[in-house]
Amino acid sequence: MKAWLVMTKGTAWAVRIAVIIAAAVVGAVLHWWGAEPHVSQIPEPSPPGEYTPTFGWHPDAEALAINRDRTRTLHFDATPAGQAVLGDTDVFLWRYVRKAAGYDVAEAWYPNINQQNVGCCVGCGWKHCADVCQATAIANGQAFAWQPVSAEVIYGGSRVEVGGGRLSGDGSVGAWAKEYVSSRGGIVPMQKFASADLSYFSPTRAREFGRRGIPVDIAAVARRHPIQSCALVTSWQQAKRAIQQGYPVAICSSQGFTLERDATGRCRPQGVWYHCLALIGLRTTPPEGGFLLNSWGDAAHSGPLWPPDMPRAGFWADASIVDQMLQQGDSFALADVAGFPQRRLDWFVLQPQASRGHANVVPPPRLAAGLMAFAIHNPEVLR
User: Fold this and answer.
1) How far is C-alpha 14 from the geometric centre of its chain's CA atoms?
2) Whole-prediction pTM value?
3) pLDDT tens per residue, range 197-220
4) Are the CB atoms for 152 and 123 separated by under 8 Å?
5) What is the rounded CA–CA span in Å between residue 124 and residue 292?
6) What angle do CA 128, 214, 190 make, to 5 degrees?
């Protein structure tokens, strides 16, 4: 009887091991043909939708006065970075995002969102800067796992937690976004939460958060990931120093532009926008200028790209125009993000896999991928 029990237990374990191996082989085959087991995924960008020229920056007089007061607001020219002596070099911060996210660095596609018909541009512009801020921190040695940031949370937090819900209609203030991400809240990755699915961008949800505030569970996560240092940028020379050191600048101004780029990738200044844009690039070839990432999707702007991997959702603006925008006093450089720590699994080291629409994170050995997926979804086999 004892011998039989021993044999039965041994046989049972042999069967379990055989099942796991078989599942691993199946998983490997599926992975080979494209049906890979899901381990971790950077969310795909929201559908582009129809291009709608929507604005949402409010030049709040009280906030602008606080910005000008150096005893109440950190100014970039008073920081070590703002006083650095640097040369003239082209800087394309979008390349750091592509590298950190595992995208093909040679492609013009870039992770961006389209606010469509909701005036949540302040949340979008700050989100785009926070994405860059993570990537440059990773390039500087921080052990972060790059994750796209929720614009809805920044927008809603700025309006409700900081602005007190006093704005009617859509829109927010750059200083309010600064206060939320650095002091009262922070940033949140685009992923599913119990109260809301933030794995994709929703203009409707941005408006809802802007009226009702951030759900409790999401707000708790935001407070663990502040952008610990934000400084007011008021001139092109300051912005130039910021970009050269990897600090993106969220620019809020009333300056408008044409939608068509010229042969050098520039858009001419034209009209009034009351809009927030992310400054994430610098070109020193005369005339000098900055790259502005918009939040109207890839279809809003047309015309040539320079360099060829430049994000389609943005354009270059001359330094003199960017300087005028910054002088309006509600634009901030972002630094020192408390990012999302990398998660290490015991069985393998995760590596990014390049993809056009998204970046899947999968283990190098396909056999290990199948084994991992099977073990996660069938834990009883290991008991």
Assistant:
1) 47
2) 0.78
3) 999 999 999 999 999 999 999 999
4) yes
5) 13
6) 40
Q: What is the mean pLDDT of residues 159-183?
A: 96
Domain positions in the chain are 2-39+363-382, 42-337
CB 370 within 8 A of CB 26: yes
Cα–Cα distance for residue pair 347/368, rounded to 1 Å: 8
Q: Which of 360, 308, 315 is nearest to 106 (CA)?
A: 308
Cite the beta strand spans of the chain per DSSP E: 40-41, 91-92, 227-232, 249-257, 269-283, 289-293, 314-318, 332-337, 351-353, 360-362
What the block records as the tokens of 115 is 């606010």
Of 309, 304, 303, give the one whose Cα is nearest residue 280: 309
- Per DSSP, the three-state class of 337 is strand
pLDDT in tens, 48-65: 456 678 999 999 999 999
- Torsion angles phi and psi, residue 131, rounded to 5: -60, -45
Please state, in angstroms and as integers, the Cα–Cα distance from residue 129 to each residue in 213, 248, 366, 379, following that order. 22, 5, 35, 41
* Residue at token pair 């300051």: 238
Is there a contact between 314 and 41 (Cβ–Cβ < 8 Å)?
no
Fold of 42-337: Cathepsin B; Chain A (3.90.70)
Residue 257 has pLDDT above 80, yes or no: yes
Q: Residue 176 and residue 240: Cα distance in Å, rounded?
A: 24
For residue 11 the two structure tokens come to: 């046989």
Candidates 125, 77, 69; CA nearest to 234 is: 77
In angstroms, the CA 176 to CA 113 distance is 21
374: helix, strand or coil: helix
Q: What is the dihedral of CA 5, 6, 8, 9, to 10 degrees?
A: 110
Q: What is the pLDDT of residue 82?
A: 92
Question: What residues pair up with 281 in beta bridges, in sequence order?
Answer: 92, 291
Whole-number average pLDDT of the chain: 81
**3-class SS at 109?**
coil
Q: Two tokens at 140?
A: 């500087």
Closest-CA residue to 74 (of 337, 338, 335, 292): 335
Question: How far is it, in rounded angstroms, from Cα 84 to Cα 209?
Answer: 39
